Amino acid sequence: MQYTDPDFGTVTITVNPRARSIIMRPEVDGLRVTAFRGANLSFVKQTIDKFRTKLIAKQAALKERPQLTEDDIEKLRKDAKLLLPRRVAELAYMHGFNYTALRIQPSKTRWGSCSGRNSINLSLYLMKVPEHLQDYVILHELCHTIHHDHSPKFWALMDKVTDGKAKALRAELRRYNP
Ligand SMILES: [Zn+2]
Predict the structure, then answer these.
(1) What is the whole-number distance in angstroms between the Cα of residue 5 and the centre of ligand 1?
(2) Where in the sequence is the domain holding 129, given as residue range(s)?
(3) Measured in angstroms, how far is the CA atom of residue 109 from the centroid of ligand 1?
(4) Lesser CB count within 10 Å: N end or C end of the chain?
(5) How many of the other CB atoms lie within 10 Å of CB of 131?
Protein backbone atom coordinates (compact mmCIF):
# COMPACT_ATOMS: atom_id res chain seq x y z
CA MET A 1 0.00 0.00 0.00
CA GLN A 2 1.00 3.63 -0.40
CA TYR A 3 0.33 6.93 1.32
CA THR A 4 1.80 10.42 1.16
CA ASP A 5 4.01 11.68 3.95
CA PRO A 6 4.81 15.42 4.24
CA ASP A 7 8.54 14.71 4.80
CA PHE A 8 9.26 11.79 2.50
CA GLY A 9 6.70 12.00 -0.29
CA THR A 10 5.26 8.61 -1.23
CA VAL A 11 5.60 5.92 1.39
CA THR A 12 5.33 2.45 -0.16
CA ILE A 13 4.77 -0.46 2.20
CA THR A 14 5.24 -4.05 1.12
CA VAL A 15 4.92 -7.13 3.28
CA ASN A 16 7.64 -9.72 3.27
CA PRO A 17 6.79 -12.86 5.28
CA ARG A 18 10.51 -13.38 5.83
CA ALA A 19 11.11 -9.90 7.27
CA ARG A 20 11.67 -9.95 11.01
CA SER A 21 11.54 -6.20 11.57
CA ILE A 22 10.34 -3.06 9.82
CA ILE A 23 12.91 -2.13 7.18
CA MET A 24 12.88 1.48 5.96
CA ARG A 25 14.79 2.62 2.91
CA PRO A 26 14.70 6.27 1.85
CA GLU A 27 14.78 7.03 -1.87
CA VAL A 28 15.02 10.35 -3.65
CA ASP A 29 11.25 10.58 -4.11
CA GLY A 30 9.89 8.54 -1.25
CA LEU A 31 10.33 5.95 1.42
CA ARG A 32 10.21 2.19 0.85
CA VAL A 33 9.11 0.14 3.81
CA THR A 34 9.22 -3.62 4.15
CA ALA A 35 7.06 -4.96 6.95
CA PHE A 36 6.71 -8.40 8.45
CA ARG A 37 3.40 -10.18 8.06
CA GLY A 38 0.87 -8.98 10.65
CA ALA A 39 2.46 -5.59 11.29
CA ASN A 40 -0.43 -3.09 11.25
CA LEU A 41 -0.27 0.35 9.72
CA SER A 42 -0.18 2.28 13.00
CA PHE A 43 2.78 0.19 14.17
CA VAL A 44 4.57 0.83 10.88
CA LYS A 45 3.90 4.59 11.20
CA GLN A 46 5.14 4.60 14.80
CA THR A 47 8.35 2.90 13.67
CA ILE A 48 8.82 5.46 10.90
CA ASP A 49 8.30 8.28 13.44
CA LYS A 50 10.88 6.79 15.76
CA PHE A 51 13.53 7.03 13.02
CA ARG A 52 12.08 10.05 11.20
CA THR A 53 14.98 12.46 11.84
CA LYS A 54 17.58 9.93 10.71
CA LEU A 55 15.54 8.95 7.65
CA ILE A 56 15.09 12.59 6.62
CA ALA A 57 18.87 13.10 6.82
CA LYS A 58 19.48 9.96 4.73
CA GLN A 59 16.99 11.07 2.10
CA ALA A 60 18.56 14.55 1.97
CA ALA A 61 21.98 12.96 1.36
CA LEU A 62 20.51 10.90 -1.49
CA LYS A 63 19.03 14.00 -3.10
CA GLU A 64 22.45 15.63 -3.10
CA ARG A 65 24.04 12.74 -4.94
CA PRO A 66 24.38 13.34 -8.65
CA GLN A 67 21.90 11.12 -10.50
CA LEU A 68 23.35 8.72 -13.04
CA THR A 69 22.58 9.40 -16.68
CA GLU A 70 21.49 6.70 -19.16
CA ASP A 71 25.04 6.73 -20.53
CA ASP A 72 26.53 6.24 -17.05
CA ILE A 73 24.26 3.26 -16.48
CA GLU A 74 25.14 1.78 -19.89
CA LYS A 75 28.82 2.05 -19.00
CA LEU A 76 28.25 0.33 -15.65
CA ARG A 77 26.32 -2.43 -17.43
CA LYS A 78 29.16 -2.99 -19.90
CA ASP A 79 31.75 -3.11 -17.12
CA ALA A 80 29.58 -5.39 -15.04
CA LYS A 81 29.09 -7.85 -17.92
CA LEU A 82 32.79 -7.86 -18.61
CA LEU A 83 34.05 -8.26 -15.04
CA LEU A 84 31.44 -9.89 -12.82
CA PRO A 85 30.99 -13.26 -14.61
CA ARG A 86 34.75 -13.85 -14.45
CA ARG A 87 34.98 -12.91 -10.79
CA VAL A 88 32.01 -15.10 -9.83
CA ALA A 89 33.60 -18.03 -11.66
CA GLU A 90 36.96 -17.41 -9.94
CA LEU A 91 35.52 -17.17 -6.43
CA ALA A 92 33.30 -20.21 -7.01
CA TYR A 93 36.30 -22.20 -8.20
CA MET A 94 38.53 -21.04 -5.31
CA HIS A 95 36.01 -22.03 -2.65
CA GLY A 96 34.32 -24.98 -4.36
CA PHE A 97 30.85 -23.50 -4.95
CA ASN A 98 28.50 -24.44 -7.80
CA TYR A 99 25.91 -22.14 -9.32
CA THR A 100 23.61 -22.76 -12.26
CA ALA A 101 23.38 -19.33 -13.88
CA LEU A 102 24.42 -15.72 -13.44
CA ARG A 103 22.38 -12.72 -14.42
CA ILE A 104 23.26 -9.05 -14.16
CA GLN A 105 20.30 -6.78 -13.60
CA PRO A 106 19.69 -3.07 -12.98
CA SER A 107 18.50 -3.77 -9.45
CA LYS A 108 18.25 -0.76 -7.17
CA THR A 109 16.81 -2.68 -4.26
CA ARG A 110 19.44 -5.32 -3.65
CA TRP A 111 23.05 -6.00 -4.54
CA GLY A 112 22.44 -9.63 -5.30
CA SER A 113 20.24 -12.64 -4.77
CA CYS A 114 20.38 -16.38 -5.14
CA SER A 115 17.40 -18.49 -6.18
CA GLY A 116 16.42 -21.85 -4.76
CA ARG A 117 17.93 -23.39 -7.87
CA ASN A 118 21.25 -21.65 -7.21
CA SER A 119 20.95 -19.12 -9.98
CA ILE A 120 22.68 -15.90 -8.97
CA ASN A 121 21.55 -12.36 -9.77
CA LEU A 122 23.86 -9.40 -9.31
CA SER A 123 23.07 -5.71 -9.58
CA LEU A 124 25.06 -3.84 -12.21
CA TYR A 125 25.39 -1.08 -9.57
CA LEU A 126 27.91 -3.34 -7.85
CA MET A 127 30.40 -1.69 -10.19
CA LYS A 128 30.14 1.41 -8.00
CA VAL A 129 31.59 -0.24 -4.88
CA PRO A 130 35.22 -1.19 -4.20
CA GLU A 131 36.36 -4.61 -5.39
CA HIS A 132 36.62 -6.19 -1.95
CA LEU A 133 32.94 -5.34 -1.40
CA GLN A 134 32.01 -6.75 -4.81
CA ASP A 135 33.73 -9.94 -3.66
CA TYR A 136 31.77 -9.82 -0.41
CA VAL A 137 28.44 -9.69 -2.31
CA ILE A 138 29.50 -12.46 -4.70
CA LEU A 139 30.66 -14.68 -1.83
CA HIS A 140 27.42 -13.91 0.03
CA GLU A 141 25.36 -15.20 -2.91
CA LEU A 142 27.67 -18.18 -3.43
CA CYS A 143 27.26 -19.12 0.25
CA HIS A 144 23.51 -19.07 -0.35
CA THR A 145 24.00 -21.97 -2.79
CA ILE A 146 24.79 -24.01 0.34
CA HIS A 147 22.59 -22.28 2.94
CA HIS A 148 19.49 -20.56 1.55
CA ASP A 149 19.01 -18.38 4.61
CA HIS A 150 20.94 -16.14 7.00
CA SER A 151 21.32 -18.76 9.71
CA PRO A 152 24.38 -19.02 11.97
CA LYS A 153 25.60 -21.79 9.63
CA PHE A 154 25.44 -19.36 6.72
CA TRP A 155 27.46 -16.73 8.61
CA ALA A 156 29.98 -19.35 9.75
CA LEU A 157 30.54 -20.27 6.09
CA MET A 158 30.78 -16.57 5.18
CA ASP A 159 33.44 -16.13 7.85
CA LYS A 160 35.33 -19.12 6.49
CA VAL A 161 35.53 -17.62 2.99
CA THR A 162 36.26 -14.04 4.14
CA ASP A 163 38.92 -14.73 6.82
CA GLY A 164 36.45 -13.96 9.59
CA LYS A 165 35.53 -10.56 8.18
CA ALA A 166 31.95 -11.27 7.05
CA LYS A 167 30.15 -8.95 9.48
CA ALA A 168 32.74 -6.18 9.10
CA LEU A 169 32.39 -6.29 5.31
CA ARG A 170 28.61 -6.26 5.62
CA ALA A 171 28.85 -3.14 7.78
CA GLU A 172 31.15 -1.50 5.26
CA LEU A 173 28.78 -2.28 2.38
CA ARG A 174 25.91 -0.61 4.25
CA ARG A 175 27.56 2.74 3.55
CA TYR A 176 26.64 2.31 -0.11
CA ASN A 177 23.29 2.18 -1.89
CA PRO A 178 22.71 0.32 -5.14
ZN1 LIG B 1 21.66 -13.12 1.78
Answers:
(1) 31
(2) 70-173
(3) 13
(4) N
(5) 11
